Amino acid sequence: MLITIILLIFTVIVVPFVSFYFGTPLNELQQHVLCGVSMIVAGVIAYCFVIGELSKNNSQVDKLWSVVPIGYVWYMTIEGGLNERMVLMAILVTIWGSRLTFNFARRGAYTWRFWAGEEDYRWEILRKRPGFNNRFVWMIFNLLFISAYQNVLIFLFTLPILSSLANDTSALGLADYALAAVFVAFVVIEFIADQQQFDFQTEKHRRLKAGLPLEHYEKGFVSTGLWSIVRHPNYACEQAIWVVFYFFSVVATGEWLNWSVAGCVLLIILFKGSSDFSEDISAGKYPEYPEYQRRVPRFIPFLKGNK
Fold first, then answer.
1. In the structure, what pLDDT confidence band is assigned to residue 278 with cuts at 50, 70 and 90?
2. Is the pLDDT of residue 101 over 60?
3. Residue 215: inside a domain, yes or no?
4. Can you give the pLDDT at residue 226?
5. pTM value?
């Protein structure tokens, strides 16, 4: 796990630096907008670190994951002059963020004590592991990975919206509408996946509390519906959503590979590492999970060897 974390921190520095040199350099307006939103990101990082340390709840980034991208894209859209493509992209991110915020809120993530609420169960497990159980080490991990890396990543995967300022043509075309339809489709599929998981876990815990027979809930994890096609349909859709978002920059610039690619690439790397950690926990917790891993692909449907 430590090697994975070091790799992730390394990539968030190297990938944006390298990708910056692909495609057309940023113009003066893009640089101005980028500088302004970067200051906001720095403030969010500081907030997450300080509140996480004071509250001992390290899911502050999780609470903001679906909220701050909406602020970022609308800030860039307004500063960029409200061109058509940017407005469409900002609306799409608002749809994505609203759905994800709803899903997070119903799990008890938000309370009137804004620093409290549900904490990602993986942080508690990781805090107990050798190396991470040192208070100083955990503080550095909180600063560099939980607060800084994740917030920089959130910022990076919203940056394709800034590519619409690369030239004077901002009128929407057929490709923009097609991408918007695919984006919304992935949001809908992600909603269905999260709902299936929510229903399964809710019923499982209801039966446990009432002392009722668990029946097929006894194995502990959802493996029906979309979860019978891939092990992480919600994660798969989340990655696909931001890859589609990047393709708006391809339409805007005419360049298949441009400087805004860093965000979706890093997100894919993050989900690989995050799902590795989650599956390691699940395999140790649920006896039937290893068989589920052998039988069902991780992210890509019907692809054998997709472990």
1. confident
2. yes
3. yes
4. 96
5. 0.86
Domain count within the chain: 1
219-235 burial, b at 16+ Cβ within 10 Å, e below that, comes to bbbbbeebbeebbbbbb
The mean predicted confidence, pLDDT, of the chain is: 86
306 found inside a domain: no
In this prediction, residue 192 carries a pLDDT of 97
Predicted local distance difference test score (pLDDT) of residue 14: 64
CA distance 21 to 12: 15
Residue 304 is assigned to a structural domain of this protein: no
Q: What is the pLDDT of residue 27?
A: 85
Q: Is residue 300 part of a domain?
A: no
Q: Domain residues for 6?
A: 2-295
